[in-house]
Amino acid sequence: MPAPDQLDRLLELISGRRLAVLTGAGISTDSGIPDYRSPDSPPRTPMTYQQFVGDPVFRQRYWARNHIGWRRMDAARPNPSHHALSRLERAGVVTGVITQNVDLLHTKALHRNVIDLHGIYARVRCLSCGSLTSRMSLADRLEAANPGFAESHPLDGLEVAPDADAVVTDTASFRMVDCLECRGLLKPDIVYFGESVPKPRVAAAFEVVDSADALLVIGSSLTVMSGLRFARHTAKSGRPVIILNRGRTRADDLATLTLDTACAPILTAVANALAPN
Q: Which pairing describes strands 94-99 and 114-116: parallel, antiparallel, or unpaired?
């Protein structure tokens, strides 16, 4: 449980205010999805857009590993933090959630207003014609092209990164597939490092922030500008920025309140106080 003084300070600050929420990978660790930058996380190097489009060998390695790892993300279920925020949204405390995660756990927790800032794991886009397909459909095609590959790499004991990239080493024989419409390159509908978030999505996220009285950041170090800009925007407008994260963030100097603690206990306590069942 959170320390009583932490909970009291948080409740005092958010009572009577409508909250926009920005979430990062730290909110999903209790669902079995690792993060990139918490104090206990092993070193990870996220993939860049340039690596994906510029190197066929790297792209082959990615699809082989993703063919295994996406199944764990698909099987992940919301944890108490997601459910607590969903309760707060139904109670009118939370006006919307902007998530940097691609895991769809807020949607699975029945949130009504979610901006998937960096895209979602469950959809694939053609880089040539822009056509979209489901990750499940692509899995069927990849399985047909690589019979037995998934069965030879059971998920039990495999490390899977936050972008559904499983740690698999024998990928040289893996066969990729192209777009059925134009034979173009297929890419998960996820914003990689080196890409920009689509402008309409950014505009929708700013609408969520501007409709609220405060910003609550959960489980994000705000290392990348795609999330940091919302904290800066909120602070510049004179509204409170509240950060709940394990470890330091790039916006600590902007925050009205920072809580270095686990997400689930304090969010559940807040929901019990402000959105009792």
A: parallel
118 assigned to active site:
yes
* Pairwise CA distance, residues 16 & 232, whole Å: 22
- Supply φ then ψ for residue 116, to 5 degrees: -85, 85
Which one of 82, 83, 111, 118 is the catalytic residue? Answer: 118
How many angstroms separate the CA atoms of 266 and 247, rounded?
16
Distance of CA 252 to the CA centre of its chain: 20
Candidate CATH numbers 3.30.1490, 2.60.290, 1.10.10, 3.30.1600; the one for domain 43-75+120-190: 3.30.1600
List, for residues 85-101, the tens digit of each pLDDT value: 999 999 999 999 999 99
Domain residue extents for the chain: 1-33+78-118+196-277, 43-75+120-190
pTM reported for the whole predicted model: 0.91
CATH of domain 1-33+78-118+196-277: 3.40.50.1220
What are 137-175's pLDDT values in tens digits?
Answer: 999 999 999 998 888 877 776 666 666 676 777 788 999
